[in-house]
Design goal:
Elements: E1 2-3, H1 15-26, E2 33-34, H2 38-50, H3 52-62, E3 66-73, E4 82-86, E5 94-101, H4 106-125, H5 132-142, E6 144-145, E7 151-153, H6 155-169
Parallel strand pairs: 2-3, 3-5
Antiparallel strand pairs: 1-7, 4-5, 6-7
């Protein structure tokens, strides 16, 4: 789910390439998918090692011009399990923040992160998205409006979340 309300806001990799670049995906100081949470870091590791789709999402973001921070929070609206927020530009750098529920089974949380990382790629691919209005225009064009105000989703993100879940549970 993509929420535009707050002010802050595949090409797949071959499995052998994922193994060779896992240090870059998880540990490089230049990685583009980051967290300050030990639990989220652990979920990222599981996702990268057990889901080729999840690893591809992280690799695609590493090659993009956006930096994504993932955090767990208990302060999300009840209607959302996760959301992507566009943060203000800093030195022309685009930053995104993914928030996911603070509770749930690891498989469900990793699938949710995969869903939200797919939204991050949608934003990364739209180089004109540098402010909230441009983000809203993007999702009016490619997304489906959800029941809650200023929220959108895409078939690509839904499909990605399901694919990650299937890979994790196979």
């Amino acid at each position: 789910m993509l929420s535009l309300l707050p002010a802050l806001f595949c090409a797949g990799l071959m499995t052998s390439s994922v193994s060779a670049s896992r240090a870059d995906l998880l540990d490089s100081p230049y990685r583009h998918v980051r967290t300050t949470s030990a639990r989220v870091q652990h979920l990222l590791e599981i996702g990268i090692f057990r889901s080729p789709t999840f690893a591809s999402l992280v690799a695609l973001l590493n090659a993009s011009d956006v930096i994504v921070y993932i955090e767990q929070t208990a302060d999300m609206p009840r209607t959302l399990e996760g959301r992507l927020l566009l943060m203000p530009l800093a030195n022309h750098q685009r930053y995104l923040r993914i928030q996911i529920n603070s509770s749930g089974a690891p498989t469900d949380l990793i699938s949710l992160m995969g869903h939200e990382l797919r939204h991050a790629i949608e934003v990364a691919d739209a180089t004109d998205v540098r402010d909230e209005r441009a983000l809203e225009r993007l999702y009016e064009r490619i997304g489906m409006r959800s029941a809650a105000m200023h929220t959108y989703d895409t078939n690509a993100a839904r499909t990605t979340g399901r694919r990650v879940w299937k890979e994790l549970t196979a």
